[in-house]
Design brief:
It is a multi-pass membrane protein. This protein has 17 helices and no strands. By secondary structure, the protein is mostly helical. The chain folds into two domains: 187 residues, MFS general substrate transporter like domains (Growth Hormone, Chain: A); 195 residues, Growth Hormone, Chain: A, CATH 1.20.1250.
């Protein structure tokens, strides 16, 4: 284990890099439907195309994640973070040059292949501090993500309103190259201390190990469901805002503002969730976070106007921010350091397949029932999952 000062230096550097990546992601992702309209996709098919171009990234990323995770354990987490940062930067820049929806589909597939910065960085963060401080370190890391989530949508909406979407992709590519350079020159590969040396294993052996530990499979399912829920909403958010205000004019900027306000609210509660999880149990904290998120998403399905929707987004932000860092802290808690890169790789696979399923499901619900029903279904789903967490983990006191 790295010394305390060097370990926290890693945590802050990686948090800064992840903040930049989060800004880039949220500058772009909520506004891809608007970009598709700019590329000539019709209003009647934009929901389907949004689901497709979102999902291909996560399908490819899900396939590659165990490979990158295993390489992170055997070749080094730092190397994998640099690889991912450079390739994602290239994919962003290429996206700025696309001329039709199929070319966008191709660059999104490349982005999925390149993915892997976040699990590599998260693993380095968890290994850079003593085990008893893992929750705090991952809470700091998550705060960086939230800050990016606050800045990104608003910045992306402003740039899109002034000069259009394409310059946003070029800026994002540049930020990724800078983040890769920071990791290369300043971040140190953390040591695993007295942990067992890394063994070369097959994916089947890794999966059999995870299946033998029920708590890990429960966590992977939670990763999958949570990301599916989040990505059910992102592709249609700008479209829903346009529907609520009666026009798509300015919808991207307004959607970005609403997302930023919700993310800002989340910065207030993220450390509260981390402390609560460490003190009372990660699964109990996940239960409460899922309950709150589900209830307020359900209420957002009621189309009472922009003010209603935006106010509820503040409350959604306060609760949803707790889920992923709590899952990550629990995953680190239940996993040996020598195996952690592979487990985080599997968590990324669960994330990515959730991200793949979510947009496709949302586009189907939108096409057949209407946009507001996506919020209704997502809210009900998360409340049901919260009930399952309570029954399987909290009630049985397995989290303590």
């Amino acid at each position: 284990m790295a010394d305390a000062r060097g370990g926290m230096r890693n945590v802050w550097l990686l948090t800064g890099c992840m903040t930049g990546l989060s800004i880039c992601y949220t500058m772009l992702i909520p506004f891809l439907p608007v970009y598709l309209l700019e590329l000539g996709v019709g209003h009647d098919s934009v929901a389907i195309w949004s689901g497709v171009v979102f999902s291909i990234t996560f399908f490819v990323a899900g396939v590659m994640a165990p490979i990158w995770g295993r390489m992170a354990d055997t070749k080094g987490k730092k190397l994998m973070a640099i690889r991912a940062g450079i390739l994602i930067g290239i994919s962003y820049i290429l996206t700025g040059f696309v001329q039709d929806a199929w070319q966008l589909f191709a660059t999104r597939a490349l982005m999925g292949f390149a993915n892997g910065f976040m699990p590599a960085a998260m693993t380095m963060v968890s290994l850079s501090v003593p085990k008893e401080k893992t929750g705090t370190a991952l809470g700091i890391f998550q705060t960086g993500l939230i800050v990016g989530n606050v800045i990104g949508p608003l910045l992306g909406g402003l740039i899109e309103a002034v000069v259009g979407m394409r310059p946003v992709f070029f800026i994002a590519g540049g930020v990724l190259f800078i983040a890769s350079a920071v990791v290369f020159f300043f971040v140190k590969e953390p040591h695993m201390g007295d942990a067992q040396p890394v063994k070369t294993t097959s994916f089947r052996e890794d999966w059999n190990f995870v299946k033998g530990r029920k708590v890990l499979t429960d966590l992977l399912w939670l990763y999958f469901i949570m990301q599916a829920a989040i990505l059910m909403l992102q592709p249609i958010l700008a479209l829903y805002v346009g529907q609520l205000q009666g026009t798509m004019e300015g919808a991207a900027l307004l959607a970005g503002t609403i997302l930023s306000v919700g993310g800002l609210a989340g910065t207030v509660t993220t450390n509260i969730w981390a402390a609560f999880g460490q003190r009372k149990g990660y699964f109990k904290a996940v239960f409460y976070a899922l309950c709150g998120t589900g209830i307020f998403l359900f209420l957002q399905s009621m189309p009472f106007g922009i003010t209603w929707f935006g106010s509820l987004q503040i409350l959604v932000g306060c609760f949803i921010v707790g889920v992923n860092p709590l899952l990550s802290a629990a995953l680190a808690h239940y996993t040996e350091p020598a195996f952690r890169g592979r487990v985080f790789g599997m968590a990324t696979t669960a994330n990515q397949f959730g991200c793949m399923v979510g947009p496709l499901f949302a586009s189907g619900v939108t096409t057949f029932f209407g946009i507001q029903y996506v919020f209704l279904v997502t809210g009900v789903l998360l409340m049901f999952v919260a009930y399952q967490v309570y029954q399987r983990r909290v009630k049985a006191a397995d989290a303590f």
